[in-house]
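Hi there, hope your week has been kind to you so far. For a while now I've been wondering how a particular protein folds. I'm sending you its amino acid sequence along with the backbone structure tokens. Could you read through the record and tell me how the tokens relate to the sequence? Take your time with it, there's no hurry, and the full record follows here.
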Amino acid sequence: MLFFRREERYVLDSASIIDGRVVNLFEKKFLEGKIIIPYLVRIIARKQIGNDAERVLNQLRKITLLEFVEKNVDGVSEEISVLKLASRRKAKVITTSDEYNRHLKSFPDVRIINIKELHSLLTPIFNPNRIISVYIKKRGINSNEGVGYIEGVKIVVMNGAKFLNQRIWARVISMLQSDSGNLVFAEAVADLKEKSINTDNRKNEYN
């Protein structure tokens, strides 16, 4: 799935780097194109989350082309710096912040991509009692829990720890939604035979 053309350019702000979900959007190719990092953005992200900021940028560097603007020539405000650069380079702004809405009248040519809004559109909905297929990658906080991921959503499976490094069936208990992402709680039903899963659930299965 590709939402934007390959030749698109994007300017990241510090909020999107701190949030980190931008990596998944490029990794899954929901977004493709060149990423531009303003000098001030990199400084603020480093100040806020230290080495984790560079980790996010290194992950992005492995996926797509990154360009770092080494001088801050667009003012002292991060939002203004980002918007000016995006306007000049005909790029879109990627952020999780709503602050940019206050400045858009001065930059009518700049499009804002809000990660929170985009991620909510792309995230699968896990209704209670849904049967899902999930690979248990690691143990959870509690000793009996196993943890897996489906389309970037963290799945915590009760009684799943004993199935480490295995793919199992699980029944969804609930899903918590927040700005930082979704969290699904499920229970292992690994003894459930494939032929016993009803047609509706099979249609909704995630591999």
